[in-house]
Design brief:
The complex is a heterotetramer, with 2 copies of chain A and 2 copies of chain B.
Chain A (H helix, E strand, L loop, with lengths): L8 H26 L13 H9 L6 E3 L5 H7 L3 H9 L31 H16 L5 E6 L6 H13 L4 E6 L2 E2 L2 E2 H4 L16 E5 L3 H19 L2 E6 L18 H8 L3 H11 L5 H24 L18 H15 L6
Parallel strand pairs in A: 1-2, 2-3, 3-7, 6-7
Antiparallel strand pairs in A: 4-5
Chain B lengths: L2 E3 H15 L3 E5 L15 H5 L4 E3 L4 H13 L3 E5 L10 H7 L3 H4 L9 E6 L14 H5 L5 E3 L4 H13 L4 E6 L7 E3 L13 E4 L4 E5 L3 H13 L5 E5 L2 E3 L3 H11 L2 E8 L4 H13 L8 E5 L9 H4 L3 H13 L2
Parallel strand pairs in B: 2-3, 2-4, 4-5, 5-7, 6-7, 10-11, 10-13, 13-14
Antiparallel strand pairs in B: 1-8, 6-12, 9-11
Helix pairs in contact in B: 1-7, 3-4, 8-12, 9-10
Classes of the chains: A alpha/beta, B alpha/beta.
The complex binds thiamine diphosphate (2 copies) and magnesium ion (MG) (2 copies).
């Protein structure tokens, strides 16, 4: 973590590099799926400033609870690209042992909680982590990431309410990207802003331009300072836009107009930060170009490395249901391995 | 009659019911403008309008609670839960309200709703887009559980579900949404609940399956047929009500029984089937009942093909059961 | 339903009679439980003005979705006292066929939905009913009754949100009686008022003195007018106090001070309305006394009548699981009746 | 050692664990100042303070989600769900998060939590204060299910649960909270999971039960003893993990099996037991396995005593099974 308030030059440049790296990795994620090399992908395209801006304003000891679209946060945390691609491939090097669809990664060393798919569950988990941090006297925050759609979930209500009651150090980081799959924000809820939902739980909610790296950074760093000072949670609504489909299974042309997408393309967070940095004289065109090129190479080498690992070993199927397998699980594993060795079961 | 896919049959059933009865109303996430993430409701928003096809906020308890409320006011709502894996936030509404409403009110307030939901694996969906948790509902008195395996059954059973006055969970085998094809009668042709379907007659061993395991099981039956084993394949169609008579009749005939489902074995629905068979047909059984199921782990991703009962695994199980002592 | 706005003399007098009747019935409910004649009871004592005030401001065609403490609403609806006591006794005349604990009654003829015990579920059901009323073009409202504790439930969040989105004609009637069993309102949520939670869903919330019959009547009648005019839902927070225990299983002395209870006794809603009526010259002491006496007699005769009915017939155990019993249920019923006739099973 | 009731044993276990390990923390509705609606946590708020005994808002998904979050941060939370009937709003957190966390994270993030909840009938609680829905959890891979029937087991199993690194559902038979009494060892004495207890030895028929049905079954065994039928009563203690070896050993010895539980029969946990027994002991079985259970209806109120397996009904079932062909 760095400064509270406006980001320094160093932070801005670091943010830019991470956003560019994220964009490059994200584009390859989608391509790998289109090529049939991975099974599924959830693009973050358009939300880089919100994610990296938030990620960099946090401390390494803070807890991250992602949804499934938080590639920018993972990179801001320092999770190696190869770790992410190992997960996308679901290979034997994957920390998750190939057990989940792409984009559901996690990594304990980075206090980055392994994602699940059900919408909203991480919101109340974050409050629990924060309550435990309070109890242990650790000066850290928990940050659940979620979308406009998730504000309708039961766990949003519970997580927000409990955080208010216990004054838990949580930053509820809401990326309002305008859509929950095909449902526009306006039909998700009638509240004029999503930020003001915080008032129902007795703590502040703020709206911030989610495509403005520095603004996001500032809002999060201030919320963090508040939280560790014992002043309780904050809800941050970062206004942004999902440029691509909801996931590689989605066809957004069925439900939204290309004009709207085009208008948001004008507000591209990477172009915008690049212009700002150039205007400030902290970067020049050539330097920017180099960052873009390097990012692509870095991504390529992570993919190459990840694609080398074989699929997970079949016998791992039975691990981690419990700390120690029950006797029934061991019995199933034995029968299973017999069938694998006889060729009855084939991957 | 033309050939349609299973999901087209679902779509047709909804259309027929909506055209026939203005009280039939649809609600769920992404079912309107988008036509459903699997396109089950494709075209219905355009045809019937936003008052009859409601795109809802992201809240399954909201969806199910709304549906029950609408039913109390006399409508016949059909709610979609986008994936069965996401039905759990609505669990309280389903088991505490829908399933118990008629009973707790002495019959005054039935909850006339249908919950449609795609279930099961085989689509590389991992832990949270593959589950098959029918036993959570079969073990809850007061809710019917229906699982079709063919387009004709999908249409006929869904029409029955929509006009049935009890709450019905209608589980759709998404893995065969587009691969199961067949002819479907036009119009409002219903298939009654509680009647299993003999998908293939046989004399050596009875195999019970439902949903996406029916085509797998039929293939496995063909495999063992070549070894001279005549397996009878029974498609249960509705788990609640269960066609116990058909099950018992088949096992009394063959003396051997195999059960196939995707869900984990331990405490799964196959346990009820196995128990029912052994308790009722003990003196006819020539071999132990065999359950071929998913393993007792959460649903995996990379190893999915090893996890789900495959044609080979089912064939091996049928063969062993048919030939054991 | 009568007038919108301030209640007329007639409505006030009617309300007074119902509140007195409710108090009398409620006291007997508790006594019957103490005497072991019924199994359980949930007293409404102290909340009569909120309940009767709300009940009388509604139309006979409006839908009521009670929690479990709404005796005053049931009486305002006109549900006969004997019907209620039949339910308390769980006898063969009980509309619920003896299937539920006392206080969970319902009656379709009065559009009064049979209660369940899980907190909050009725809130979203109410929204569903209201959405259906909209669809059918019926000019009626749905009114879920719930407490301060229920505002933390998932179904509060969903019911409020869906009502906002669909502009459903719902009056969310929240009796904030200060406690959710032992949890004081201040620990339930940090929002300054409960009424303001409505803003998070884009519609108005109002706070009203729940011990003031006329104030409650006015607020509800206005919310009703709004709703049937297509202007959407309202949340009404009626500030009141539960004078007795949470239920006959509860001992409130474990968690709240007698001074607080005493201070609320000063604000008793029946005494207050009685004084108001006398001050207005619409009632005199003798008239009031007569109303109190008549109420007791009316309650006694309902109890006498209800206590005459035998318990439900054993074979009804298997009815109403489904519209028609399945063959397995019929099989169970046969075995069961055999055991009953053999004396293996005894009530 | 002094005689204590089952609920006092629960209270003692919590106290021992809290005194021993500051990471043990309690949360739930009315468990602090009020000491729990059944008084399971009586005195603990006073002794350990509000930081370790958290009164929560009325939200079961909040309670369970908080507990899981706390566990992720290294605590050992023990959450109380006031009645099992109210666990459903937390169902998504339990099955999607707690039960799958270790698996989905490749072992990185276990959910070390205990959910304590009173379950079952016999207290005139009607539909919503009487349910026994262990089957919903036994069929969900990744969560352990424990049900004690004596004070000593309640204490020893709860201590094991609190220090077990997997999520544990600890179901407390509220009907015998105060009637089951017995001696309990002092201190942190644990009883391992997966070991059934032979509550009464016998040679003619094996009867499997758990929780509040154990005392009923023991009484029934005494009734049939007088007819010369020696029933073996096996208290399963933990349903997950299940002591299959003990079950099989008992049935191989007696050749006959009866299962007793409160939950409805259809698709209940008894189905797994019956299936397991018939599948594994088919050639030893001298009579069909019998399930004596609640009926396939929601839980009633006025007729509760007719609904629950009574001593007479159990005795009749044991006798019939022991004497049939
Ligand atoms: C409980 C649940 N219901 C439904 C889904 C299916 N689903 C996946 S993402 C999504 C929309 C989420 O929208 P939002 O919260 O705005 O996040 P975004 O995808 O826009 O980042 C839905 C409905 C789910 N994953 N979980
Ligand atoms: C889902 C659920 N959790 C817990 C309970 C147990 N319980 C019954 S009433 C109650 C408190 C309700 O408080 P409130 O909503 O303020 O209503 P009040 O009783 O004060 O009228 C609790 C916790 C329940 N019935 N349902
Ligand atoms: Mg969104
Ligand atoms: Mg209250």
């Amino acid at each position: 973590m760095s400064e509270v308030g406006d980001p320094s030059k160093e932070t801005m440049l670091r943010g830019f590099r991470l956003m560019v790296l994220g964009r490059a990795a994200d584009e390859r994620g989608t391509n790998l799926q289109r090529q049939g090399r991975i099974g599924f992908y959830v693009p973050m395209n358009g939300q880089e400033a919100a994610q990296v801006g938030c990620g960099l304003a946090l401390d390494a000891q803070d807890w991250i609870l992602p949804a499934y679209r938080e590639l920018g946060v993972a990179l801001a945390r320092g999770i190696p690209l190869k770790t992410l691609f190992d997960q996308f491939f679901g290979n034997s090097a994957d920390l998750l042992k190939g057990r989940q669809m792409p984009c559901h990664y996690g990594y304990r060393d980075y206090r980055y909680i392994t994602a699940s798919s059900p919408i909203g569950t991480q919101i109340v988990l974050a409050t629990g982590i924060a309550a435990a941090s309070l109890y242990k006297g650790e000066k850290v925050v928990s940050v659940p990431f979620f979308g406009d759609g998730a504000t309708s979930s039961s766990d949003f209500h519970a997580g927000m309410n409990f955080a208010g009651v216990y004054k838990a150090p949580v930053i509820f980081f809401l990326q309002n990207n305008g859509w929950a799959i095909s449902l526009p924000r306006e039909k998700q809820t009638r509240s004029p802003t999503l930020a003001e939902k915080a008032e129902a739980y007795g703590f502040p909610g703020v709206q911030v331009d989610g495509n403005d790296f520095a603004a996001v950074y500032k809002a999060v760093s201030q919320a963090r300072a508040r939280a560790v000072a014992g002043e309780g949670p904050t809800l941050i609504e970062a206004l942004t836009f999902r440029m691509g489909p909801h996931s590689t299974s989605d066809d957004p042309t069925r439900y939204r107009k290309s004009e709207v997408v085009a208008s948001w393309r004008e507000k591209d967070p990477i172009d915008r930060l690049q212009s700002e940095l150039i205007a400030k004289g902290w970067l020049d065109e050539a330097g920017a170009e180099k960052i873009h090129e390097e990012a692509k190479l870095e991504v390529q080498s992570a993919i190459d490395a990840a694609e080398k690992s074989p699929p997970p070993d079949p016998s791992t199927l039975f691990d981690d249901v419990f700390k120690e397998p029950t006797s029934l699980l061991e019995e199933q594993r034995r029968e299973f391995l017999e069938m694998v060795s006889q060729g009855v079961l084939r991957p | 009659m033309t050939e349609v896919t299973l999901i087209q049959a679902v779509n047709q059933a909804l259309k027929v019911a909506m055209a026939k009865d203005p009280d039939v109303i649809l609600l769920g996430e992404d079912i309107g403008v988008n036509g459903g993430v699997f396109r089950a409701t494709d075209g219905l928003y355009k045809e019937f309008g936003e008052k009859r096809v409601l795109d809802t906020p992201l809240s399954e308890n909201g969806i199910v609670g709304m549906a029950i409320g609408m039913a109390l006011q006399g409508l016949k709502p059909v709610a979609e839960i986008q994936f069965m894996d996401f039905i759990y936030p609505a669990f309280d509404q389903i088991v505490s309200e829908a399933a118990k409403f008629r009973y707790r009110s002495g019959g005054e307030f039935p909850a006339h709703i249908v919950l449609r939901t795609p279930y099961g694996g085989g689509i590389k969906g991992g832990l949270y887009h593959s589950q098959s948790t029918e036993q959570l509902f079969t073990s809850t008195p007061g809710i019917k559980v229906v699982i079709p395996s063919t387009p004709a059954d999908a249409k006929g059973l869904l029409l029955s579900a929509i006009f049935d006055e009890d709450p019905v969970l209608f589980m759709e085998p998404k893995r065969i949404y587009r691969t199961a094809t067949g002819e479907v009668p036009a119009g409002d042709v219903r298939i009654p609940f509680g009647k299993a379907r003999i998908a293939k007659e046989g004399s050596d061993v009875s195999v019970f399956a439902y949903g996406s395991m029916v085509p797998q099981t039929l293939q496995a039956a063909n495999v063992v047929e070549k070894m001279g084993i005549h397996a009878e394949v029974v498609d249960l169609r509705t788990l609640v009500p269960l066609d116990v008579d058909a099950i018992v009749a088949s096992v009394e005939k063959t003396g051997r029984a195999v059960i196939v489902h995707e869900a984990p074995k331990f405490s799964g629905f196959g346990a009820e089937l196995s128990a029912t068979i052994s308790e009722r047909c003990l003196y006819s059984l020539k071999a132990p009942v065999l359950r071929i199921t998913g393993y007792d782990t959460p649903f995996p991703y990379a190893l999915e093909n090893l996890y789900l009962p495959s044609v080979d695994r089912i064939a091996r199980g049928i063969e062993r059961t048919a030939t054991s002592a």
